[in-house]
Amino acid sequence: EKIVKLLAEDINDKGGLLGEEVEIVVEDDGGDPRTAALAAQRLSTRDIVAVIGTYGSSVTEATQNIYDEFDVIQLANGSTAIRLTQKGLDKFFRTCPRDDEQGKVAVKTIDNMGFERIAILHDNTTYAKGLADEAKKLLSKQGTANVVFFDALTPGERDYSAILTKMKAAKPDAVFFTGYYPEAGMLLRQKKEMNWDVPFIGGDATNNPDLVKIAGKDAAEDFFFLSPPVPQDLQTQQAEEFLADYREKYDSVPGSVWAVLSGDCFLAVTTAIKETGSTDPDVVAEYLHNDLKDMPGLTGKISFDDKGDRAGDLYRLYRVNSQGDFVLQSN
Length: 331
Fold this sequence. Notes:
Mean pLDDT: 94
Largest sheet: 7 strands, mixed
Strand order of the largest sheet: 5-4-6-7-8-11-12
Order of helices and strands: HHEHEEHEHEHEHEHHEHHHEEEE
Number of strands: 12
Number of helices: 12
């Protein structure tokens, strides 16, 4: 929200869009599909041109048909489940990559690190199970590593020692956890308490500074995760200018890449409106599908394919260092 408002202020300072001021209307989906559906219904009746959001795939899924019915363009910033763009909804876009792309990068990383026995752990959410299934499928196809454990935990619990013990018995060389950062933090902390020093690799939902707070710096050290790059690691002029503006306004840097990807949603849709001179959803969607090519975004170049997926490879490998910082690893 902070990022989108900052970008909207910038446009308004320059005279707005099509001679009018850009107004940001905020509704909270509460990270819950039911709340999100109600928020979507409220927004759809408010003469909105486009909706930015949201993060969780199951939360976005609950809103897709509502926006489609009301002819509202939706740009998701963090919903990576493959099926969201398989439904033929021509006004749905996302600036984040899909799980199958993340699955490919995960398997390549596992391969490059030379691990042969892999445990895969998910949390049964749309996103985490999708990524776990994808990684398992690719690993078995490739044949260089064996999946020796595949199971789910229950999110929100305080004690994961039972599933950690079960996993340890399978003797994996590495664990790929596809769930979210609160559980990742607990797992890292509890495996350290068990003196089990197996390497953990996370998916992009573990990219949150709170992971280190939950795990503790010692337990989080040497945790690897895949993620689109954070703006501090981008060399583009857009990212540098944006970071300078953000620091000036909020006296900090964005904590999460997902928030920055919502900024890319905003830039894509406002570029389309500006270039077409229209807020007609059909015209804007047509432009986003066919004419927006390599737009300089905050996380790199932005283009969409015919399904509304972002084109190009966006994932990078990060490692948590002894200070608890997320350090980009060279490819």
